[in-house]
Amino acid sequence: MYEINLNTKTALIFGFSNHRSIAWHTANKLYLAGATIIFSVYGEKMKKNLLKTTADWNYTPEIIECDVSSDDDIHSLFTKIEKSNQKIDMLVHSIAMADKNELGGDYLSLSREGFKLAMDISAYSFVALCNGARNIMNNDSSIITYTFQASEKVFPGYNVMGTAKAALEHEVRQIAFTLGESNIRVNAISAGPLDTISSRVIQGYKNMKSAASERSPLKRNITLEEVANSALFLLSDMSSGITGETLHVDSGYNIMGI
Ligand SMILES: NC(=O)c1ccc[n+]([C@@H]2O[C@H](COP(=O)([O-])OP(=O)(O)OC[C@H]3O[C@@H](n4cnc5c(N)ncnc54)[C@H](O)[C@@H]3O)[C@@H](O)[C@H]2O)c1
């Protein structure tokens, strides 16, 4: 029987908040496949949550704090990993942020500051992290980020985050081209709606969820487990011929015209 074995691989994972986070389900899936996990979290509280959440793992993962809006934080994170002589094989970017007042209502009321914040944390951070990681990534590595279909179609309420996700998906193609020579692959997973801290603040989130379950070909919402399985595929050699792609993991909702 063939199975994905990541025993010799190390993953650096951004975006853990709690046990519902997509980053957590991705990390646990990679851990179960044998990978060594390094987490980067935003703030001291997340660090404590993470130590509790990983309590039953057979090792205590390294956790490095990093605010991705700070170039200094990003620089010191990658310097720390480099100085410890560690190389990484998988990078997971599972980060998004917008002012919750900008996630609903009239799109044209979007403020300059709200635009900058959403683009900085949700889109620019991917460029900065890929750039920081390129020198410590092994050949044959894989990078993923998480996006949502509001990059392509209008989902009332998603507003500026849709704009940021469109930028993020463009970055995936651009960075896939840039890192292709080093045989580093870069892909996005466009996940259907999932109950996490981030999704709950989006006005219209419940409508998105019920529309997906009523109208998608599979007639149901996706699960965190399904997203993590797809991440495992994209981060492992099983997807060695795929880069620059946005893979929809959404019960097929994106193919529907009505
Ligand atoms: N939940 C969904 O329905 C859904 C669907 C498709 C895509 N996504 C995407 O998945 C990703 C993960 O979101 P989630 O749903 O797991 O929610 P989450 O709230 O668990 O994760 C978002 C993470 O972003 C981190 N973050 C915010 N600002 C940061 C900063 N300045 N520096 C470092 N980290 C920062 C938070 O700490 C948090 O861990 C996001 O990109 C989100 O847009 C979510």
Short description:
The chain is an alpha/beta fold.
Task: Tell me what you see in this structure.
Helix 1 (22-32) packs across helix 8 and helix 3 (71-83) packs parallel to helix 4. This protein has helices spanning 22-32, 44-53, 71-83, 112-133, 159-179, 197-200, 205-215, 224-235, and strands at 10-14, 36-41, 62-65, 88-93, 137-147, 185-191, 246-249. The chain is α/β, with parallel strands linked by helices and 258 residues long. The protein has one domain: Rossmann fold, CATH 3.40.50.720. Strand 4 (88-93), helix 4 and strand 5 (137-147) form a beta-alpha-beta unit. It has eight helices and seven strands. The protein has a seven-stranded parallel β-sheet, sandwiched between helices. Nicotinamide-adenine-dinucleotide (NAD) is lined by residues 15-17, 21-23, 42, 46, 67-69, 94-97, 121, 146-148, 191, 193-194, 196-199. Residues 15-17, 21-23, 42, 46, 67-69, 94-97, 121, 146-148, 191, 193-194, 196-199 line the site of nicotinamide-adenine-dinucleotide.
Report, as a whole number of angstroms, the end-to-end distance.
Answer: 41 Å
**How many individual β-strands?**
7
CATH class: Alpha Beta
Major sheet strand order = 3-2-1-4-5-6-7
CATH topology: Rossmann fold
- Shape summary: globular
CATH architecture: 3-Layer(aba) Sandwich
- How many helical stretches? 8
Structural class: alpha/beta
Poorly predicted runs are none
Specify Rg, calculated over alpha carbons: 18 Å
Task: Name the average pLDDT.
Answer: 97
Catalogue the ligands: nicotinamide-adenine-dinucleotide
Order of helices and strands: EHEHEHEHEHEHHHE
Describe the biggest sheet? 7 strands, parallel
Q: Hey, roughly how much beta strand do the residues contain?
A: 15-25%
Looking at CATH, the homologous superfamily is NAD(P)-binding Rossmann-like Domain
Count the domains. Answer: 1
Helix content: 40-55%
